[in-house]
Specification:
Strand order of the largest sheet: 3-2-4-6-5
Order of helices and strands: EHEHEEEEHEEEHHHHH
Largest sheet: 5 strands, mixed
Radius of gyration: 19 Å
Strand content: 5-15%
Number of helices: 8
Number of strands: 9
Structural class: alpha/beta
Helix content: 10-25%
Distance between the termini: 32 Å
Length: about 300
């Protein structure tokens, strides 16, 4: 979804809502959003903290990124898997940083959190409990300008917020924004940006239930590995003005095959998108099918 003054709160066909408990970190807006002191002041004054996000998109959908030493291999595997999905389903392109001043830097910090939109060096924290593809997709989603799905003004037509079940001072995290434009897409319970049913909940309670009980499972199982919903894909591509035909299902050319038994392992370790171009080309030559399935030409 996309704030007229601000951001898109949007969302590979998701299995569950995009939420883990490590996104409920004190000191972060809505539990997983990094705000500057000025933005925090605007929140306290009940004005939108994202008034300039319109100008915080990544130019031409090109996003440099880097890994900090603190992030171990499991976290890097999660990021690489998330990037592969962004490459496969959107026109955004992530490339290893080569001196750019605006880039995403992944590190292991407290909880899972990110700024919203491009802010120079966007440091995305993937701490303990955040090391899966779904969480990486969600936090990268914030950095490209996405907000939480349930801030949409039509939220109450689809879900019920049980305020008595909210733990501590988190009631503000469920506030609706009337400045949201969903870009013509329907409310998406499967969005990677939607809260789970137990977000900020007291023990053994739910803070969100669906008005249609048959859809409750879409927001219940927040610990499962998941991906984009179909609506996430539409919204991201609208947000970044992807041209018709620019995003296509990846096809494997005749003769493109994996000739090494470890291609699946190397893919998870990020070698299809290695910063060293020669290494990336060698990986493509030996693991053509794995790399093509994951990220097309992978920047070659």
């Amino acid at each position: 979804m996309f704030l007229l003054t601000a951001i898109v709160c949007s969302s590979l066909l998701a299995l569950s809502a995009g939420w883990v408990k490590q996104m409920e970190t004190p000191g972060f807006y809505q539990g997983d959003i990094q705000l500057s002191p000025e933005q925090w002041e605007r929140v306290q004054n009940r004005s939108s903290p994202f008034g300039s996000i319109r100008n915080r998109r990544w130019p031409n959908g090109k996003i440099p990124y880097a890994f900090e030493n603190s992030l171990g291999q499991k976290g890097r595997d999660a990021v690489n898997a998330a990037i592969a999905d962004y490459h496969k389903f959107t026109c955004l392109r992530f490339t290893p940083r080569n001196g750019e001043s605006n880039y995403i830097s992944f590190f292991s910090g407290t909880g899972c959190n990110s700024p919203v939109g491009m802010y120079g060096v966007n440091r995305i924290s993937l701490g303990a409990g955040c090391l899966d593809k779904g969480t990486a997709l969600h936090e990268i989603g914030h950095s490209i300008g996405l907000q939480h799905e349930q801030c949409r003004p039509d939220r109450d037509q689809h879900v019920i917020i049980h305020t008595n079940n909210i733990d501590g001072p988190w009631a503000y995290a469920f506030a609706i924004s009337n400045e949201v434009d969903s870009l013509g897409t329907p409310y998406d319970l499967s969005s990677m940006m939607h809260y789970s049913s137990t977000a900020f909940a007291k023990p053994n309670t739910k803070t969100i239930t669906t008005k249609d009980p048959s859809k409750q499972k879409l927001i219940d199982n927040y610990n499962r590995i998941f991906g984009f919903s179909s609506t996430d894909i539409v919204q991201i591509n609208k947000m970044y003005s992807c041209k018709e035909g620019e995003v296509k299902p990846v096809t494997v050319a005749p003769g493109c095959a994996d000739i090494e038994p470890n291609c699946g392992i190397w893919l998870k370790q990020g070698y299809c998108l290695a910063s060293d171009l020669a290494q990336r080309k060698r990986m493509h030559d030996k693991c053509c099918k794995s790399c093509t399935d994951a990220c097309g030409k992978c920047g070659l």
